[in-house]
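User: Modeling request: complex.
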Amino acid sequence: MSGKRVVIAGMGFGGLRAAKVLAESDVELIMVDRNNYHLFQPLLYQVATAGLEQEAIAYPLRGLTRRWSGASFLLAEIGGVDLNEKYVMTDAGKVPYDYLVVAAGSRTNFFGMESVAAHAFDLKRLDQAEDLRNHILLMFEQAPREPDPKRRSALLTFVIVGGGPTGVEFAGALRELIVYVLSQDHPGISAAETRIVMVEAADSLLTAMPVELRQYAYRKLNSMGVEVMLESRVVGATAESVELHGGTIIDSHTLFWSAGVAAAELAGYLHGVELGASGRVVVQPDLTIMGHPDVFVVGDMACCFEQGAPLPMMAPVASQQGEYAGRTILAREQGRSLPPFHYRDKGSMATIGKSAAVAVTAGFKFRGYIAWLAWLLLHLYYLIGFRNRLVVMMNWTYAYWFQERQVRLITAKKRRAVTV
Amino acid sequence: MSGKRVVIAGMGFGGLRAAKVLAESDVELIMVDRNNYHLFQPLLYQVATAGLEQEAIAYPLRGLTRRWSGASFLLAEIGGVDLNEKYVMTDAGKVPYDYLVVAAGSRTNFFGMESVAAHAFDLKRLDQAEDLRNHILLMFEQAPREPDPKRRSALLTFVIVGGGPTGVEFAGALRELIVYVLSQDHPGISAAETRIVMVEAADSLLTAMPVELRQYAYRKLNSMGVEVMLESRVVGATAESVELHGGTIIDSHTLFWSAGVAAAELAGYLHGVELGASGRVVVQPDLTIMGHPDVFVVGDMACCFEQGAPLPMMAPVASQQGEYAGRTILAREQGRSLPPFHYRDKGSMATIGKSAAVAVTAGFKFRGYIAWLAWLLLHLYYLIGFRNRLVVMMNWTYAYWFQERQVRLITAKKRRAVTV
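Assistant: Request completed. Predicted assembly structure:
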């Protein structure tokens, strides 16, 4: 061992990649996370739409430390970092570091709208996906026994805010869940009386994509039966309604929010550090904090400028930054240095429905079946763990052939207490 | 349709089998359950010991109604039955019936010991299995950072009450989880410092089994490292200790209770009906309630005497009774009658660990590998749903070859609320 200790705070895509780089070396590695698993967030929406069991997109972190000598894991909530004394404060005690990689990710940003925060579902954590699935399935259990037609209609109306990849993928998956599964499960409910309304503030969906792909996504969602409202904004919500800018009220018991993210709370606990837009930590070209060359910030938490704009908050950026942080630490220990971080944009993609996706890479644009197949394969590839890949592949194959989703379980936790 | 409506209250093994018989007929069938899935309870302990994802042992009931014309499902909590007006009271309204099959199963019986009820884990519901898994895994996260050796030891001590099949299977699976998985995951914890203590009031384990098999189970558990205390009783508990009759205190943060079951609460809501031991409903030879030939009670809720003793509360009894109730209803509609119910005892089995189980059938006794293999195959066979069988088989194969259990996830729900 070099004797140097590297602490990684947060085991999302950035933290995981940094850990993989460092695991092959002779530093002491301590991985800290509030969960004992790495979560494959891009597939959370499939858990929420009954397509996957939650366990399939989580990988136990001790499955990694078990194979890596010199690496350990600490299940803890991080409360802050003392940048001068060089330790991380956690609810399991102080963890001193020589190098620190801060990779705590992001949280949902409701832009101060408390009524929306109180009533909207968002997808950052595994339990949120399970809650949302339970809620959607419950709406279909409640609607048939609702005598008031207006209320029945509100139970079967689903509002999705944000036309980025998460919103689009969720909208498509929800529509397919309703058409192929729930309207078959409930003979009294026709897919035609259900509504999915997508509310997007910009003048198109998937604004990061080329214009043809945006239009394709719009047409495809429309033809599937999703009502897309562009240049519209949600300004408030109750448990049974959503209010748009301009005063329009949509009666709906389900509001899904994917219209904003901000850096995780931890960014605010780093005293004296400059924060950029969305509360992200402004980093140097080598991803360290100004004045603290031993502290790296990677992924959604990092505000890293390239060509005048901060890099987007997405998994490939986090992974590349995690890898860079790990390599830089190794290089420094060997007395070398690396050129500044540079993001290699390999493209992006979003799936809309069965055999329908959009993808762009190296200037090439794909849509339809070929993009959809590429999406499936890449997501399987990036998923962690052989067993998880098998389970996901099995579920996808099953859903493809049988048009059914067997994880349509309502697993609500509030049950009567056991009587003595 | 005959126009007759059959309501099935509870979709465990008894209700499910009755539904399958009636689904092939021309009655109107309404299945009521508080969950939207059938739960394969015999494998709950494998969810609790991180061997299976919870979704794999649940089957959505609407997957059945979808295929069965004339059958519908109602997600509701049943509050009682009006036997004279012939309707079931639920939180979704009154459900009138012509025939009623009451199959609400059982709940854990703590025999009035409130301190035990407050602190013990039991396994009846899916969320309880998840809670227990989370708790066990958390003990191993907390122990290494516990400075007090006495407390550390208590964190790593697991007390199991009841040496019946559930207790024995759970003890074996927990021991294997610790030896093969958790002590590898946590280099600071040796399997030798962990304790599993099984407390059984009788003078042997598996009292329903032949004596050789009881002895085999005892020897096997002992050799695996489980401390079996026979002729011992738990009389109280705190969050950190278990008290035995005689005053012995075992310091332990984990108490698992499988030492008693009683009929579900619903049995007590049937006014004027005679209850037997454990609150079970005393039934006639045709499984109906005295004076109410249109109301059948099957499974754990039914107190059905054969050869002077009530039949045991186990899945095969429930299934056969459910089938009998269904067939009797069909026969009556055709103006026929059936001979009284008779339980055909096909045997029983319990698995203790890898390649180790006991089984008895038709007077033949099996133990070891052959019994274990039979256990695996029969459980796969009785599991509902092709997809679930695949997932379970995959998990078992994976665990067998790789000695790992990937569902070792701590999915606790109490997380910080999202900030605006």
